[in-house]
Amino acid sequence: MLLIAGSLGVLGLIVGWVISSNREPVPPPPPAQPTVEAAVAPLAMPVLSYLPAGTDSVIALQLRAYIESFPEGDDRNPRNALLQLGIPDELLGSVERILGLPLDQIDQFAVGGKLNAGLLASQPVIVVRTRTPFSMETIAKRAKATADRRGERIYYRTNSANPFGERFYWWAPNDKLLIIAMQGSVLDGIPVEGRAGSDHLDQRLRDNVAALLTADTPCWALFESDDWQGIATLAMLAGKKKNGLDGLSDSLTDLQTVILGVRVDNKPTLTIWLEMKSDTAAAGIRDARAGWFRKEQSDISIGGAGSRIMLLMPPRGDNVSKVLKRIFLEDNR
Fold it and tell me: Does the pTM of the predicted model rise above 0.85?
């Protein structure tokens, strides 16, 4: 449930892993940019071309395009928009500190992993593209990172003063792109210019994104696994508090894929697709939950067909947690 219900919050959480003990103030923002890039289709995001081959799970955000898609008169402050998605404020501050840039200068970022290969093999890779150039040397100096030359490339290795006690490697292929991984060998396999197209991503990921996410979806996530039971069990063992999650593992037997997409028309809307392993499993959940949503959650609707369950709701982190607990936790049935 930590991986599913918290997927929007993970956008900030994973980036926050790489922060060292640095607490320097965020520099003032540079002058406003005269132009803004239009959103591209989910699979056409340039940052995806720097994810490792075989990536099957992705969190992706076209931040600048997402903000600019809000209707005129709405709050277009990046921090406020991300707070509404459930990302903690302290982690947004971490993003600014690591780049030495305000959130307004972050154009796109993505987090990719291989969840289907198991948690130990799914080490995340983070790709951040900025709107203005940054200095990798300045970032490394501020974080007291150590240079690690590998052929023509220079990686920077952080110290272990981060929440998880792990070292991370930073690599800047150019002055607007920062890539972060837990192992330098993962960065070795990423081309300097990125990969053309999206064929390096898992086939099921590409098929699901193409089928279920519209071209104007600037914020999305997809998690794919054949063993959600095992993931839930490990997550619960690692957690200090169960928070009523007993029985979660057994309830995820039929789950295959979780897909989330945030679009902005008249107002931001979150769509969640749950791909089950059978039509019967999906129909059972839809039939059992439809009445509850109509009666108790008028701003959330449930639908879908075949092996898919579709949920529509305002994009708030508490909504995601509440809905998925209602669907999957045995004591809420």
Answer: no
Start-end of H helices in the chain:
2-5, 7-16, 63-68, 78-84, 89-99, 136-142, 184-188, 203-212, 228-238, 248-251, 279-296, 317-328
**Sequence-distant (≥ 6) Cβ neighbours of residue 205 within 8 angstroms:** 55, 56, 57, 58, 222, 224
- Distance of alpha carbon 78 from alpha carbon 47, whole angstroms: 19
8 A C-beta contact, residue 331 and residue 244: yes
> What are the DSSP calls for 255-323, one per residue?
EEEEEEEEEESSSEEEEEEEEESSHHHHHHHHHHHHHHHHHH-TT-EEE--TTEEEEEE---HHHHHHH
Answer yes or no: are the C-beta atoms of 283 and 289 closer than 8 Å. no
CB 331 within 8 A of CB 254: no
pLDDT per position as a tens digit, 282-294: 998 888 887 777 7
